[in-house]
Amino acid sequence: MGEAVNALPRSFYARPALTVARELLGRLLIHDSAEGTTSGRIVEAEAYHHDDPACHAFRGRTQRNEVMFGGPGYAYIYFTYGMHWCFNAVTGEEGVGEAVLLRAVEPVDGVDLMQQRRERELRVERLCSGPANLTKAFGLTGAQQSLDLTSSALRIEAGTPVEDLGVAVSRRVGVTAGADNLWRFYISASRSVSKR
DNA sequence: GCTTTGATGCACT
DNA sequence: GTGCATCAAAGCG
Predict the structure, then answer these.
(1) What residues does A155 pair with on adjacent strands?
(2) Which nucleotides of C are covered by protein (CB under 7 A)?
(3) pLDDT at A1
(4) Separation in Å: C10 C1' and A50 CA
């Protein structure tokens, strides 16, 4: 609990969102909470490059997207559709405004806790399949806003990077602006990917 | 201020 | 495959 020696360093995030999104696959997302620890292997991520109309930071700094400009390696968590939380890792240099949306992980530790939080879903491979499913199973809300992913209760460790051959690319889910960009990456063999 | 939209998930057909 | 719940932030004027 609380150990961050294996967490990916800030330099990992201080690169373009496109690069970081692909390289986050296979990594380990960990959240230590009062209820216990949950962790999972990242199997799906989308890049939101600063020069992209679909990116929350595209039109400049606002109260909502402030964290995206605060430097790489921090958690950007936002509320959407009136009921869902989504979790991003801020990427690029400070002041740029871009991030990677984590869309799905394969549960590793804390499966019982995830099932309690989800209440509904019983199949393990689907507990964190989808950006809002993931945040619910991990207990992530605005309370974790801007936590340091390199050294806090919410962090990402090295895990096992995937071979290029195991990575599939597609359009991002639910995006209208910049829809043609193939900026969604996922591990094609994983049962936990949210959409095919 | 007032309206529109959305990086969704789920129930239902 | 389709429709809906539900509301904060952005966009507009």
Answers:
(1) A30
(2) 5-11
(3) 55
(4) 17
